[in-house]
Amino acid sequence: MSGLIALLDDVAGIAKVAAASVDDVAGMSAKAGAKAAGAVIDDAAVTPKYVHGFDASREIPIVWRIARGSVFNKVVILLPAALILSQFAPWLITPLLMLGGAYLCFEGAEKVWHALVPHAEHVSPETTEPDDPTHLEESKVAGAIKTDFILSAEIMTIALAAIPPGQGLAMRAAVLLVVALSITAAVYGAVALIVKADDYGLALVRTRGGWLRAAGRTLVKAMPGFMQALTVIGTAAMLWVGGNIVLHGLETLGLGLPYETIRHCSELASEAVPQAAAVVGWLVTAVLDGIFGLALGLLLIPLSNAVLAPAWRRARSLFGNPA
Fold first, then answer.
1. Confidence at residue 33, expressed as pLDDT on a 0 to 100 scale
2. Residue 60 pLDDT
3. Cα–Cα–Cα angle for 305, 311, 312, nearest 5°?
4. Is residue 12 part of a domain?
5. If DSSP states are collapsed to H, E and C, what string results for 22-58?
6. Is the Cβ–Cβ distance between 41 and 194 less than 8 Å?
7. Across 146-152, average pLDDT
8. What are the tens digits of pLDDT across the range 89-122?
9. For this UniProt entry, which segments traverse the membrane (predicted)?
């Protein structure tokens, strides 16, 4: 009997440790996911455009195919790469994180620049969409998965950097896996709801009466504005998160004046409004981080147009498939 009691006690102890580990994974995953907010919102804002123009019956299958590609990107390619990086070259995490943050700033600033100075985009023969619906779908899905790879790389790098130091390899792997699956489910679940919202609204208008029909009509009318708002929020989040990542990276590398200046401004604002110190402090920090991100992104636009884009096209012409 004493042996049985001891065994039960050991089982109870193991269960407590397992529960604590699960709780730690959940807590770290939530924090890591929150850090990746900018890339996540942009992912949700960008993806619906890939189903634009398709028959309603193909919208959810296309979103599902992109979601599967996103899981492959995160779990099969990026998760092992992140673990190898954290195990053998942790010093590279900050520079890579800053590179991802700079890319977010560039993307956000480019959207702001195009909104302020609209211009027609050049369409090359290679990028002309095929007329065949099957080929068009394949092209759209492939393009979406490529775009997702960049955003997923940012998400996984941000999540990796958010894991507290000293965590074992298994814990890091568990946190990254939870982040990868939960963010993918959240983003593409939201995308599926967004792309079908107008269809659901039309169904209510056609098949229901009274307040349900009015709700359907409101839903249909609200979707264009909602998509526009989502784009604006995604752009602001990219600039905020990207600027914050670069500023933190500069501080880590010993260039802490910009970060310290913003933190000092945030503290002064919090002291000026003690009734809402936390909210005001966060808001000031986010706005200043976003302004820094916008300024950095605007500086990167001419660099990209004059140097990076021509170099990329040259590399593709040299090493790409001539066919």
1. 54
2. 86
3. 90
4. no
5. HHHHHHHHHHHHHHCHHHHHHHHHHHHHHHCCCCHHH
6. no
7. 79
8. 888 888 888 888 888 889 889 889 988 887 655 4
9. 75-93, 174-197, 218-241, 291-312
The one-letter amino acid at 178: V
Q: Is residue 183 part of a domain?
A: yes
Q: Is residue 185 part of a domain?
A: yes
CB count in 10 Å sphere of residue 1:
5
Q: What's the CA gap between 109 and 122, in Å, rounded?
A: 19
In a domain, 4, yes or no: no
Q: For the chain, percent helix, then strand, then coil, each to nearest 5?
A: 90, 0, 10
Give the domain range for residue 162: 22-319
Q: DSSP state, 102?
A: H
DSSP 120: P
Could you give the percent of the chain with pLDDT greater than 70?
77
Where does residue 48 fall: left (phi above 0), alpha (psi -120 to 50 degrees), or beta otherwise?
alpha
Q: For residue 104, which of 235, 259, 247 has the smallest C-alpha distance? A: 235
Please tell me the total count of domains within the chain. 1
Place of tokens 């997923």: 152
Tell the residue number behind the tokens 């775009």, with chain if given.
147
